[in-house]
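Here is the promised in-class demo. Please do not try to memorize the tokens; focus on the logic of going from shape to residues.
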């Protein structure tokens, strides 16, 4: 479907702070005797201790809370996040990030910590199609995609995999935030406005932008199943669920459905951003894909 996305979670370069290295040749084995288990770990893993202590989550936990001592070796085991956090809805069919499941703990870390993540996207550059009105019924035809856009976004985080924090959509989706500031992505112009006003329900000027993202990509919208991080959606799917149908010719139930899932919302948005023109009898659209910035309409 002309969309390829892959994620690279940068593997850590672990640098144990040399200044804190234990003297292993101190002659006696009493070196640790007056220290707690935590102190022992952080003698060598001081960097991890620093990350943990500034975390939003887990900051009060000890190393051994997660790293149980192995029964057979002298080492401490590495846990999976899912050992303690099971049954998350990350593989729900409507979850936008189901692709992260296969990454295991690395996927969790990409969203939940200050470890760096690089998101690479490739998408079609343009979509083109005609909308035709035949006796009040609108249909989409001649749908094509042209060109390829290669996008890469680097979250530019310099922390570590033990520094848990609250999830930020913007860390990875900067391109969408940029598109929104240029009037793209899902900025919905009101049919009753003068071409500048946003539809009240979707207005993004009152709330922090990230809260606005989560109105449409709401993981716990009771009209749908529950997701872990964010819901993938289309304008028509949600409007059907909420019974908001303002289109002539049953466009929302039939016409729009012939467009591939990923591009449907662009068809809706392109029309709204060009002033809600009616096909009379036909309009040709050429729309730049995400990060979206222009729509060209010809009769
Ligand atoms: C004497 C120094 C030292 C002490 C003390 C120490 N470690 Fe380590 N630890 C290391 C070194 C060296 C490695 C290997 C580093 C690497 O692979 O990057 C390591 C690796 C690990 C790993 C990764 C194991 C793996 O399979 O990848 C974990 C988890 C770990 N340590 C936890 C702990 C915990 C928990 C404590 C305290 C109970 C502790 N360490 C105490 C030096 C130490
Ligand atoms: C809330 C659970 C949790 C706590 C608390 C925790 N760790 Fe970890 N640790 C993990 C997980 C999960 C991984 C595997 C990371 C991955 O897959 O990249 C890990 C990996 C490691 C590693 C392997 C190298 C690396 O960074 O990936 C070391 C070393 C380590 N931890 C040391 C520590 C030390 C020392 C402490 C205490 C200061 C600590 N951890 C506290 C969950 C925890
Ligand atoms: C050994 C068990 C254990 C492991 C392993 C573990 N956690 Fe946790 N986690 C907890 C507990 C217990 C809490 C409850 C809050 C607290 O006391 O910090 C928690 C809290 C959280 C929270 C906040 C939950 C909330 O309701 O706000 C997040 C997010 C989280 N963990 C993510 C992770 C991620 C990501 C990993 C893997 C890198 C991980 N955890 C590994 C036990 C664990
Ligand atoms: C695409 C990003 C993303 C990925 C991947 C991800 N999470 Fe989350 N996680 C979130 C968001 C968003 C929330 C809701 C809380 C918030 O908004 O900060 C959340 C919430 C949580 C919570 C709090 C309990 C809850 O359900 O609200 C835990 C625990 C948690 N995640 C653990 C994990 C673990 C473990 C993994 C890996 C299996 C994981 N997460 C993968 C984004 C993600
Ligand atoms: C760690 C980086 C990361 C974070 C944080 C993140 N995402 Fe994503 N997101 C991705 C990647 C990578 C994809 C593509 C996943 C795929 O196709 O498997 C994606 C896909 C999506 C999609 C499109 C799904 C589709 O197929 O139509 C939506 C919508 C989305 N994210 C919303 C959000 C929202 C809302 C948040 C904040 C709660 C968020 N993301 C946080 C990396 C991230
Ligand atoms: C979370 C579900 C949801 C999603 C996703 C969604 N909408 Fe909405 N939309 C609504 C609801 C609910 C209303 C409010 C209806 C009301 O005020 O009675 C609304 C209102 C509107 C209105 C104003 C309608 C009117 O009668 O004044 C327009 C236009 C609109 N949406 C277009 C869109 C477009 C275009 C998209 C896709 C980019 C979209 N919506 C995505 C739920 C959604
Ligand atoms: C008015 C509803 C609405 C709002 C608000 C909204 N989106 Fe979307 N978003 C959609 C729809 C509809 C799609 C198309 C989904 C599809 O076709 O898979 C989409 C698609 C996406 C995609 C996938 C794009 C692609 O081509 O791969 C990402 C990522 C995304 N949104 C993130 C965000 C972020 C981040 C925000 C906040 C800055 C946000 N969205 C706000 C409705 C919305």
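The designed amino acids, position by position:
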């Amino acid at each position: 479907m002309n969309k390829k996305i892959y994620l690279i979670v940068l593997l850590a370069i672990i640098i144990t702070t040399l200044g804190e290295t234990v003297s292993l040749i101190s002659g006696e084995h009493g070196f640790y005797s007056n220290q707690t288990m935590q102190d022992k770990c952080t003698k060598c893993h001081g960097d991890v201790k620093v990350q943990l202590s500034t975390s939003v989550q887990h900051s009060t936990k000890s190393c051994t809370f997660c790293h149980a001592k192995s029964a057979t070796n002298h080492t401490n085991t590495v846990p999976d996040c899912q050992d303690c956090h099971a049954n998350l809805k990350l593989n729900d069919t409507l979850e936008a990030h189901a692709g992260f499941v296969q990454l295991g703990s690395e996927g969790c870390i990409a969203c939940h910590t200050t470890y760096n993540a690089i998101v690479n996207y490739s998408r079609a550059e343009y979509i083109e199609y005609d909308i035709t009105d035949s006796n009040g019924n609108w249909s989409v035809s001649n749908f094509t995609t042209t060109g390829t856009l290669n996008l890469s976004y680097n979250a530019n985080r310099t922390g570590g995999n033990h520094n848990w924090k609250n999830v930020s959509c913007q860390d990875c989706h900067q391109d969408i935030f940029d598109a929104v500031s240029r009037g793209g992505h899902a900025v919905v112009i009101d049919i009753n406005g003068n071409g500048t006003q946003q539809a009240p329900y979707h207005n993004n000027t009152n709330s922090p932008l990230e809260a606005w993202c989560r109105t449409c990509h709401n993981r716990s919208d009771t009209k749908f199943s529950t997701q872990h991080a964010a819901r993938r959606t289309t304008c028509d799917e949600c409007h059907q669920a909420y019974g908001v149908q303002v289109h002539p010719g049953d466009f929302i139930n039939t016409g729009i459905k012939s467009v591939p899932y990923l591009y449907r919302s662009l068809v809706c948005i392109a029309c709204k951003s060009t002033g809600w023109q009616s096909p009379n009898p036909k309009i040709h659209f050429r729309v730049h894909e995400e990060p979206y910035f222009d729509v060209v309409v010809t009769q």
